Amino acid sequence: MKYHFFILFCFFNSFLYSQSKKNTDSVSYYNNLVNKNLGNKKYKEAVFYTQKSINFCESNHQHEGLGNQTFKLGKIYYKQHRYDEALKSFHKSVASFDSVKPTCTKVLALHYIGVANTAKGDYETAAIYYKKAESLLNQLKMTDHAEVLKYQKALALKANQNLPLAAKIFQEITKKPDNPHILKTKTDAYYQLGLIETQLKRNDSAIIYLDNALEYNSKSNNLAQKSKIILAISQYYKKNKNFDLAYSYLDEHYQLENYILKIKNAKLDLNEFEKFKKNQSLNNTIKRESEEKIQLKTYRYSKLVSILAIALISILSLLSLALYKNNIIRNQNNLLLREKNKELILAKNKAEKASKARSEFLSTVSHELRTPLNAINGITHLLLEDNPKKTQLKYLESLKFSGNYLTTFINEILEINKIDSTKVEIENISFNLKELLFNIQSSLKELATANKNYFNLEIDEAIPDNLIGDPTKISQIILNLINNALKFTQNGNVNVIAKLYTKDEDSATVYFEIVDTGIGIPEDKLQTVFESFSQGSIEVNRKYGGTGLGLTIVKKLIELLGGEIKLKSEVGKGSTFTFKLKFKINNEPLEVVEEAKPYNDKQLKHKSILLIEDNKINQMITRKMLENKAITCEIIDNGEDAVELLKVKRFDMILMDVHLPGINGTTATKLIREFDKTTPIIALTAISLDENRDMLLSFGMNDVITKPFVPDEFYSIIAKFFD
């Protein structure tokens, strides 16, 4: 039983190496899991835990353990015939031993590099590593185990169908002097020679080798080895149509296998088997001689049939047992999966409900805030136009700033909710990116000047003029990033760079970089700055202000457009934001869009407008804003009365609040369009998550004014229908 003692010693070396650590992150722990999975032929799991063990050795600088574990990984790949991956692991194992005293595992790693190359047919490389392994073996004074390595080498050659060379090595092993250390190896070498000669149909030499194998086996009492030799002899006689001897040896093979099974289950003593074998052999011999005398010819065929029947029954029994066990395991796994699936569905539904509740809450709050905010902004605008006292002017300007700040804050909350609920639609229209960036630079020059910053824009001329994308969202991204850079930088530099990254016939990828020399972001805040309401620290928020939603919107919009934003920053030195976006190229000339002309007060004079609004404060503000432009305004506070009035009276325009008591503004608009197709109808709405411009226009409205009103936009939208 000393065969493979050397290999087993090397394998257990890695196990013993880490016995001092028995926690759940140690070589010992992972080895137990690997061996368990290998025993169950779960190679994928075995590879996973071996890799875990390798990672542990690397992180703890255990070079010898690393060599042992990478060799073990190579052996797993080798058994699966994944030779390229096995070679990588074996080479890594050899490299790991360069910094420590060489062990028998390094010998095995070198040897298995040769074996794997042999299996691939690269005999020249294999020969180099066989010599290296043999040299190291001599250096370690372990030459008694060299024949084990030769045997493995010959097996690899045989598996690669290089039978002559394999036979030559097996013969070299058999010529070695008898030694207890190589007894099993010599027996196996004779056995393999018998198989090779049988395969080459050299029958005389085949049976001689197999008989020699059986003779050497008798010196060791290795039952498993004897069983396979006897089976090979039985198959030899079967091929040569000597069915009596074939049956005789096959019968003995089954007896041995049966006894080996009993030893495993009941742990019978070896002496008891010898008595059992002698009694069985004697009875079978007497019975066989009697039967041969009575009907030799008849039994030749019946024995063959019996052999086939036994084999068939055995196979069917094993298949039935395997199917039965697999069915039990499958049912158990299915039950477990159903339970886990139910848990996942419950968790998913809970998370979706929480997310929906959050979105609905924020949407409702932001929507409900717009109506009173419209009153604040509107009254502030009216008071500023009413020639206030100098002492009042400062307070009104502060009130206007606060109203605009709240409006921005509410708009950003609504924007995030739209993105999260996937209700944001992406436009694909032609636009000029270079012009868009120049316009953004112009709009932010005042902020750059206020903070005494040098604001530079670099645009790659190679970027195509006409791209197809969503210019609104790109503007929103660039504006937010530049605005942040200018706000958090004083007496510094802000550089905006746009370069062509890649280009093909139909598309172009543009690289954007926004660099500032501002206050920077601490390393521990680099990830959280992209979260909602996050500004790095309370001190930053107090000093610079802001909602903490800008970068959240930027990140979500870039991801929506198929990009990914990256951030590098150092406190006191500044920040760099980079991202890439892919655009389609429009090869047709870009249509020139005329800029909207500013409105003229003369356009608005003496026009009559019907305002349909239920909120008294908004009625007052809107009426006052219209009358300031010499517009006649009549007010109705519900949709039903408005429809009836419009049936008998005409107006130059209708301002329709969307949310009205009774029928809402969209329903009222549909009813009006049944008898009036021409009068412009403008929607007034504190727009919510479920509303958008296109949806409102689909009911017959001509345009949309969002609450709270920006006075110039309010007048401009009205004026364009009075040209």
Structure, explained:
This protein is an alpha/beta fold and 723 residues long. Helix content is 63%, strand content 10%. Strands 1, 2, 3, 4, 5, 6 and 7 form a 7-stranded mixed sheet that branches. Strands 9-8-10-11-12 form a 5-stranded parallel sheet. α22 (616-627) links the parallel β8 and β9. α2 packs antiparallel against α3 (43-59), α3 runs antiparallel to α4 (63-79) and α6 packs parallel to α8. 32% of the residues are buried.
Helix content: 55-70%
The value of Rg in angstroms is 44 Å
Structural class determined from secondary elements:
alpha/beta
Overall mean pLDDT stands at 79
| Low-pLDDT segments, ≥5 res | 1-6, 11-22, 533-538, 540-547
**Largest sheet descriptor:** 7 strands, mixed
Topology at a glance:
Blueprint: H1 5-16, H2 27-39, H3 43-59, H4 63-79, H5 83-96, H6 104-120, H7 123-139, H8 146-159, H9 163-174, H10 183-199, H11 203-217, H12 223-239, H13 243-266, H14 270-385, H15 390-420, E1 429-431, H16 433-443, H17 445-450, E2 454-459, E3 467-469, H18 471-487, E4 493-503, E5 507-516, H19 538-544, H20 550-560, E6 566-570, E7 574-585, H21 601-604, E8 608-612, H22 616-627, E9 632-636, H23 639-646, E10 653-657, H24 665-673, E11 681-685, H25 693-697, E12 703-706, H26 711-719
Parallel strand pairs: 2-4, 8-9, 8-10, 10-11, 11-12
Antiparallel strand pairs: 1-3, 3-7, 4-5, 5-7, 6-7
Short account of what is shown:
This protein has 723 residues and is of the alpha/beta class.
